[in-house]
Write a structure and sequence with these properties.
The chain is mainly α. The protein is built from five helices and no strands.
C-alpha cells in the first residue's frame, strides 16, 4: 500500500474484531508502518503473537516496538507479546522461519530489551551483543 503517514490511524482498534487474520495482518502492518502511534497496541501485539509464520505479524510487532505507545502501560505488554512471537518463530524449523524474525529480534534489542531478544534460555541469539542488559 502506498499511503501517507496517518492514513490508517485507528486501524489497531480492529485487533479485537472478527476480521480474518489474512485480511487484518497486512492492514495492521500497513497502519503501523504509516502511523506514528497505534491505539490498542497491546491488543495488536497479542493477536500478532499467534502468527509466528507470518512476515506481516513479525514486521507489525517490530514496528510496535519502535513507535510511541499512547498508553505507556501497554509498553510492557507489547514487549512480552513480541518476545512470545519471536520465540515461537525461532522454534520453527529453519526452512519455515520467516526472515522477518531477525528484524523483530533486532527491534527488541534496539528497544533496550536484549533479555527479551533471547531465543534460547540463557544463550544470546545469533549476532546478539553481549553484556547490554
Amino acid at each position: 500500500m502506498n499511503l501517507p503517514p496517518g492514513a490508517l490511524t485507528g486501524a489497531g482498534a480492529f485487533a479485537q474484531t472478527e476480521m480474518a487474520d489474512d485480511v487484518w495482518l497486512p492492514l495492521a502492518r500497513s497502519s503501523a508502518e504509516h502511523t506514528p502511534t497505534q491505539t490498542c497496541a497491546d491488543d495488536i501485539a497479542e493477536r500478532a503473537a499467534g502468527h509466528p509464520r507470518s512476515p506481516d505479524a513479525l514486521l507489525l510487532t517490530a514496528n510496535l516496538l519502535t513507535r510511541p505507545v499512547p498508553n505507556p502501560g501497554d509498553d510492557a505488554d507489547v514487549r512480552q507479546h513480541a518476545r512470545t512471537l519471536l520465540q515461537a518463530a525461532a522454534a520453527l524449523p529453519e526452512a519455515e522461519r520467516p526472515a522477518q524474525a531477525e528484524q523483530l529480534r533486532r527491534a527488541l534489542i534496539e528497544a533496550g530489551k536484549v533479555d527479551l531478544a533471547r531465543t534460547t534460555a540463557g544463550r544470546p541469539a545469533a549476532g546478539e551483543p553481549l553484556g547490554r542488559e
